[in-house]
Structures are given as C-alpha cells and as structure tokens.
User: What shape does this take?
Amino acid sequence: MAGKKTKATFGDFLAGLREDAGLSQVDFADKMGMSKQNLCDIERGRRYTTPKTAASLAKKLGVPSSKLVKLSLQDLINRDGLKFKVDVKAG
Assistant: This one.
C-alpha cells in the first residue's frame, strides 16, 4: 500500500536478525530454544511474546533487553487497538 507507514514489530525484528544471520527458521528456532512453528507465528504476527520472554531472547541474541521488551509491549498495545507508544528504560 503506497503511503501507508508500517510499524516495526517484535516478529519483524526477529525475522530481520534471522535473515541477516543467514539462518532458516528451524536453525534460528533451535538456537533460541523454541519450536519452528512458534517462531513462524511470532514472525507473522499470529503470536505475541511476553516482556519476560522478550528479555530472555534478547540475552540469547546479545541485544539490549530494552529493545525487545519495548517491541513486545508495543505489539500487545497495538493488538488491543490502543493508541499509545511505548518507551522502555532500564531501571
């Protein structure tokens, strides 16, 4: 759709990392300790990740936890149709 801005999601971020690493969903899911179906559902926006799981995955990926927790929370807010933008800071 021309002109429509899409928002980055937790699944988009994971898919990008996976693709940048040149890994299949099966290989990436194994590395993350999840099923391929779960990863596929997250990447396609059919399943949402809790902030706790997002923080755990961030540690495995070596990325800031705040980044993945923020995306996880934003997905949940967007899913519920709320018009809020999440900002996460480490405490």
